[in-house]
């Protein structure tokens, strides 16, 4: 049965009005129109509050709006027992009226509230109900109505409080959540929380279902613990990973939160209140700020300039490591107001005042001052500090730098000095050039005389040697008390003076053969002390001053002694044999600035010997000539003029120099500089009682027949068997025809197809253990380089005495290497075939040279370039020895040798290396080491010691 509900409501005596979701009037019955005194056409489509206005904050406005909100929110009917609501009548007057209203929701097919039906009753008369002229007491019905009004007002206040709470809850900047029950079901969630976890359906769902992505992050377990124990938990800076959308990635959030248990009246936990703050942005900002600060500190600590910061009031609060490293100050000791302590005292006051002014005015700080370095030196710095301001222009702090400008300052100062002293320095330079020209002229004079002396020295010394030998042999045949013996002794002294003169000529012209080595000048002075004091006489006092930590000198010992004696005697003559003489020895470092005009010297360490006298001094015109050869101020017959020039030549030839400083009436100081040696070796002098001959066989090579005969006679007299040869070619022929001799004594300068040096090298290639003694009166380029005898060469200068010859021959024989017959394996046990050597060397040129040397030793050679190739060769063939480089590209030589020893326990192994030690050589046994660079004789000795070569092979190898 169908009913027309609109007709039914129209006929109802009670007022009804129908409102849509926007509170617009859709329909009203006649009773409503009558009670409100309105026309239907005027009402339709109007918002209710437009037709019946009220202040939203008034009691009636709040009550009515709250009822409408409950209906649309909850979808349930809402009652207002009594609501005061004024209404305008048709004639424009306003009446205070009281109403009772019921608001019923009309739902759409989808279940949403589509319309609201208001049923209202005017209860004004019943509410007021009072007797005119009497106090308003009202009837029982009126009392009920007033009580209903009071209840409605209380409900309104409660509803207002709830609405306020909901507004606060919903709009709170921090997130708030209410979870109920042990499964933590969402009851309420505010907007801040939805923003945190993303918009999703949470209400009525357990937390594990609503937020599955936070499983395993510890939050579910924390909620369970709070619910179980009833104790609150809070965390700061907790990290969580949530998905803000279904398909989106997990995002990191950082929160501060508290889990607060909710208890019922019995104290039982029924839920948990979650309240907290999303601090992700704050943490990210902190992280970025920390990273920025770290980048700044890293940059500041690694910048080549000093960096510092200060607070707005000018107190330094941070200083980079460079400042502390530069100044040596304790880290942290310069902050605050302590920074001026490392400023130069003369710059400190101005620096502080300038900084104070910059801080006061907020302007850029710019100044220059000197900062103390860790070693105590002060260096100039350019200092700048910039004020840092905020967006409002307020000064926040200072950032400053110190830039090292010391070098620029020094250059500026030097340039200023250059400008102010240019004329003076030009004059000084001219003087230096004049001095250099004088030294060059002197050097050229010495060179010219030296060439002349060198040209005659050879023949002159040969003549002296013939005389020495003949006189020595003649003296043996004449009795000591014979008048002829006196004449022979006189002739011998004349020969010695001639030899001394020849030696002096060669010395000042730097042609004297020197054999420099490391010497301690203190030992040298002690050795000549008696001779020196005897030469000075009783009228002279000598003071010798030497430091404890004296460096060793690198010089020829005998020539150094002669130089010191020469200088001492010169001082004695200047002081006429009476007075005090001082010899001062000290270490001296000579810089490049002190060597202007000294092209033959290099900057470095030297040992300085000063001879200081208190004689009359030397006039300036004489001082410039004292080193010239044959110049002397002594009377005729009292001096040769070669003393100081001899010292000059010796010093130059040794890599040092000699200088003289003197002024009339102030004495003279002669300074001898000799190069420093690494270590000192004790001086060894032969005791005359130890001079002896021997029975060995000597091959004497000398082109001058008279010298040859005289020398042979001296050697024979010493007990030696002597064979002679007139030139190197004849000597080689004699040596090969009759190799049974023990020593070669050879003149240096001889005519013929071969030089004496080539002859010696050929003989020692055949016999590495053969000693060779060179004798010469002038040997400029054969065995002497720049006046120094080549290392390892035995040398005896002509003319020489029998004793000098005896000493040198014994020295040469005793210094010869152990003969190759002393091997670990007897020669007769070696196989009667060429020995086969496996050579491993990765450098092709070195390998080629070594192969030639080994072939020259009479061996067969197989070459390899790597460790693995060597091991492969040893597996495939038989070899008598292994010569291997230590540093190979694939496997080290020591590792290869270790593997070889395992399979070839008796094979000799020779390591070729530039290293100081080869541990495997000692560990493996039957090994030897040859240090690079090495030659054929070094290899031959090692091969002989290891029993690889027989004596016959050693003697015949070329």
Automatic annotation (TrEMBL):
Presence of the UniProt keyword tRNA-binding in the record: no
Family matches, as SUPFAM superfamilies: ATPase domain of HSP90 chaperone/DNA topoisomerase II/histidine kinase (SSF55874), CheY-like (SSF52172), Homodimeric domain of signal transducing histidine kinase (SSF47384), PYP-like sensor domain (PAS domain) (SSF55785)
SMART domains linked to this entry: HATPase_c, HisKA, PAC, PAS, REC
Domain Response regulatory residues, every copy: 697-813, 836-947
CDD domains, per the entry: HisKA, PAS, REC
Entry keyword annotation includes Ribosomal protein: no
Catalysis performed (reactions): ATP + protein L-histidine = ADP + protein N-phospho-L-histidine
Positions of the PAC domain: 236-291, 365-417
Domain Histidine kinase: 455-678
InterPro entries, sorted: CheY-like_superfamily, HATPase_C_sf, HATPase_dom, His_kinase_dom, HisK_dim/P_dom, HisK_dim/P_sf, PAC, PAS
Domain PAS residue range list: 1-52, 292-362
Coiled-coil portions: 408-446
EC number: 2.7.13.3
Keywords: Coiled coil, Phosphoprotein
Modification type 4-aspartylphosphate: residues: 747, 885
Protein name per UniProt: histidine kinase
Species annotation: Sulfitobacter faviae
Organism taxonomic ancestry: Bacteria, Pseudomonadati, Pseudomonadota, Alphaproteobacteria, Rhodobacterales
């Amino acid at each position: 049965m169908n009913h027309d509900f609109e007709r039914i409501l129209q006929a109802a005596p009670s007022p009804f009005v129908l409102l849509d979701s926007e509170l617009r009037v859709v329909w009203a019955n006649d009773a409503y129109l009558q009670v409100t005194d309105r026309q239907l056409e005027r009402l339709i489509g109007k918002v209710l509050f437009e037709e019946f206005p009220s202040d939203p904050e008034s009691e009636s406005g709040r009550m009515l709006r709250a009822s409408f909100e409950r209906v649309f929110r909850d979808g349930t009917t809402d009652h207002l027992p009594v609501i005061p609501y004024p209404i305008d009548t048709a004639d424009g007057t306003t009446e205070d009226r009281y109403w009772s209203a019921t608001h019923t929701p009309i739902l759409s097919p989808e279940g949403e509230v589509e319309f609201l039906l208001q049923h209202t009753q005017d209860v004004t008369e019943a509410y007021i109900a009072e007797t005119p002229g009497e106090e308003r007491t009202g009837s029982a019905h009126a009392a009920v109505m007033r009580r209903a009004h009071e209840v409605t007002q209380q409900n309104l206040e409660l509803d207002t409080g709830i609405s306020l709470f909901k507004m606060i809850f919903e709009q709170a900047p921090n997130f708030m959540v209410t979870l109920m029950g042990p499964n933590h079901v969402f009851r309420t969630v505010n907007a801040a929380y939805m923003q945190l976890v993303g918009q999703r359906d949470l209400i009525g769902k357990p937390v594990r279902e609503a937020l599955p992505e936070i499983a395993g992050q510890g939050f579910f377990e924390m909620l369970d613990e709070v619910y179980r124990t009833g104790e609150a938990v809070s965390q700061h800076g907790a990290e969580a990973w949530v998905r803000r959308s279904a398909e989106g990635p997990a995002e990191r959030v950082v929160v501060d939160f508290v889990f607060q248990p909710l208890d019922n009246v019995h104290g039982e936990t029924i839920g948990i209140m979650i309240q907290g703050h999303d601090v992700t942005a704050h943490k990210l900002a902190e992280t970025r700020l920390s990273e920025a600060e770290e980048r700044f500190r890293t940059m500041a600590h690694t910048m080549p300039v000093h960096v510092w910061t200060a607070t707005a009031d000018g107190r330094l609060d941070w200083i980079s490591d460079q400042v502390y490293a530069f100044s040596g100050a304790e880290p942290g000791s310069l902050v605050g107001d302590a920074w001026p302590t490392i400023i130069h005292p003369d710059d400190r006051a101005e620096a502080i005042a300038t900084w104070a002014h910059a801080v006061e005015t907020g302007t850029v700080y710019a100044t220059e001052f000197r900062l103390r370095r860790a070693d105590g030196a002060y260096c100039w710095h350019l200092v700048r500090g910039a004020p840092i301001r905020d967006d409002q222009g307020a000064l926040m702090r200072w950032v400053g730098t110190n830039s090292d400008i010391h070098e620029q300052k020094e250059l500026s100062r030097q340039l200023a000095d250059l400008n102010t002293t240019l004329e003076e320095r030009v004059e000084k330079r001219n003087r230096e050039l004049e001095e250099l020209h004088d030294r060059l002229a002197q050097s050229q004079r010495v060179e010219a005389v030296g060439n002349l002396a060198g040209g005659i020295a050879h023949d002159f010394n040969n003549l002296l040697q013939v005389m020495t030998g003949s006189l020595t042999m003649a003296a043996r045949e004449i009795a000591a008390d014979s008048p002829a013996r006196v004449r022979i002794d006189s002739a011998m002294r004349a020969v010695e003076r001639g030899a001394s003169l020849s030696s002096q000529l060669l010395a000042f012209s730097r042609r004297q053969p020197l054999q420099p080595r490391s010497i301690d000048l203190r030992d040298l002075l002690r050795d000549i002390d008696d001779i020196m004091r005897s030469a000075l006489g009783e009228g002279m006092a000598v003071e010798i001053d030497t430091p404890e930590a004296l460096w060793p000198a690198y010089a020829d010992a005998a020539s150094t002694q002669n130089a010191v004696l020469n200088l001492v005697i010169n001082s004695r003559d200047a002081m006429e044999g009476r007075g005090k003489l001082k010899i001062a020895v000290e270490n001296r470092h000579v810089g490049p600035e002190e060597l202007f005009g000294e092209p033959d010297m290099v900057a470095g360490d030297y040992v300085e010997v000063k001879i200081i006298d208190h004689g009359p001094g030397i006039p300036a015109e004489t001082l410039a000539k004292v080193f010239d050869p044959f110049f002397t101020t002594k009377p005729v017959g009292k001096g040769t003029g070669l003393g100081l020039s001899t010292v000059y030549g010796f010093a130059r030839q040794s890599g040092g120099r000699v200088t003289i400083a003197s002024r009339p009436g102030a004495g003279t100081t002669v300074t001898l500089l000799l190069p420093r040696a690494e270590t000192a070796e004790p001086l060894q002098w032969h005791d005359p009682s130890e001079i002896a001959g021997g029975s060995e066989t000597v091959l004497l090579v000398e082109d001058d027949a008279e010298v040859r005969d005289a020398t042979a006679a001296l050697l024979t007299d010493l007990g030696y068997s002597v064979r002679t040869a007139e030139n190197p070619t004849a000597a080689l022929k004699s040596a090969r025809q009759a190799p049974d001799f023990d020593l070669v004594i050879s003149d240096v300068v001889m005519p013929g197809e071969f030089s004496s040096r080539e002859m010696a090298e050929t003989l020692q290639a055949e016999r590495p253990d053969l000693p060779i003694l060179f004798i010469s009166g002038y040997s400029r380029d054969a065995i002497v380089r720049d006046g120094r005898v080549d290392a390892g060469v035995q040398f005896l200068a002509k003319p020489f005495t029998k004793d000098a010859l005896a000493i040198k021959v014994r020295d040469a024989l005793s210094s010869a290497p152990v003969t190759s017959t002393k091997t670990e394996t007897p020669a007769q046990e070696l196989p009667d075939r060429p020995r086969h050597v496996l050579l491993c060397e990765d450098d092709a040129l070195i390998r080629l040279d070594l192969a030639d040397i080994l072939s020259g030793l009479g061996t067969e050679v197989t070459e390899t370039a790597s460790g693995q190739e060597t091991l492969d060769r040893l597996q495939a063939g038989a070899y008598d020895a292994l010569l291997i480089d230590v540093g190979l590209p694939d496997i080290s030589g020591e590792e290869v040798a270790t593997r070889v020893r395992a399979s070839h326990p008796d094979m000799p192994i020779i390591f070729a290396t530039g290293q100081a030690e080869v541990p495997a050589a000692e560990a493996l046994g039957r090994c030897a080491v040859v240090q690079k660079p090495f030659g054929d004789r070094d290899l031959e000795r090692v091969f002989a010691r290891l029993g690889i070569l027989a004596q016959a092979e050693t003697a015949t190898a070329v």
